[in-house]
Amino acid sequence: MDIETARLFATAIAIAVGAIGPGIAIGLIGSRAADAIGRNPEAAPKIQTAMILAIAFAEAVAIYALVVALIIKFV
Question: Is the torsion defined by CA of 6, 12, 13, 15 positive or negative?
Answer without folding.
Answer: positive
